[in-house]
Design a protein that fits this description.
Distance between the termini: 33 Å
Oligomer: single chain
Order of helices and strands: HEEHEEHE
Largest sheet: 5 strands, mixed
Radius of gyration: 13 Å
Strand content: 25-35%
Strand order of the largest sheet: 2-1-3-4-5
Structural class: alpha+beta
Number of helices: 3
Number of domains: 1
Number of strands: 5
């Protein structure tokens, strides 16, 4: 598999479910390279390996969720993001209304 064969819909669904399953204030790991974003450990192993195999510049850190409430969608705070913030935010907006923050 290559990054160009990435199944964005499947990845977004796993990312969405991973975040949904986290408790308020909890964190998990993420990996991102431009429009390619993996949140949590639940993706097929080959997806994580693609970043290194294809020599992509990628970022790896933690994302912490704040669940929010009725009128507040909450937030996702990413640590370790060095670039590609626009692509990261675009990916997240495809499945979540949470604000994207950086630490």
């Amino acid at each position: 598999m290559k990054l160009s064969e990435w199944d964005f819909d499947a990845v977004a669904e796993i990312n969405r479910q991973t975040l949904k399953d986290l408790a308020d204030g909890a964190s998990t790991e993420y990996w991102s390279a431009q429009k390619y974003v993996l949140i949590g450990p639940n993706h097929p192993q080959g997806y994580y390996e693609l970043f290194e195999e294809e020599g992509a510049t990628f970022y790896h850190g933690t994302v912490t969720i704040e669940k929010g409430g009725l009128t507040d969608p909450g937030s996702l705070t990413f640590s370790g993001v060095g670039g590609g913030r626009g692509e990261l935010e675009e990916h997240i907006s495809g499945f979540s209304k949470k604000r994207v923050l950086y630490s």
